[in-house]
Design goal:
The chain has 79 residues and is mainly alpha-helical. It contains three helices and no strands. The radius of gyration is 22 Å and the shape is elongated.
């Protein structure tokens, strides 16, 4: 395994294994792709939740939309 990689083991049903092999499916690549997609999905979920919380906090401040936009831009510039 190349440097920077980690070996992970999983179990699948024998029937699925046989079908995958018969169809020449690279099981490892399918699992790597599925994991990348799940990581991306969860990261997006996390970002959306942070945006929602930020919106709720901004509403509590009573600031105008323009002031909220300014605050958000300042936060972006800091990060």
């Amino acid at each position: 395994m190349p440097k920077g990689w980690k070996t992970v083991s999983t179990q699948i049903r024998e029937e699925e294994y046989k079908k995958a092999k018969a169809l020449s499916i690279n099981i490892s690549e399918v699992l790597r792709k599925a994991l990348r997609e799940e990581i991306k999905r969860r990261e997006e979920e996390k970002k959306l939740e942070a945006i929602k919380r930020l919106g709720e906090l901004l509403e509590k401040t009573g600031a105008t939309s323009e002031e909220n936009i300014k605050i958000i831009r300042e936060i972006r510039e800091e990060n």
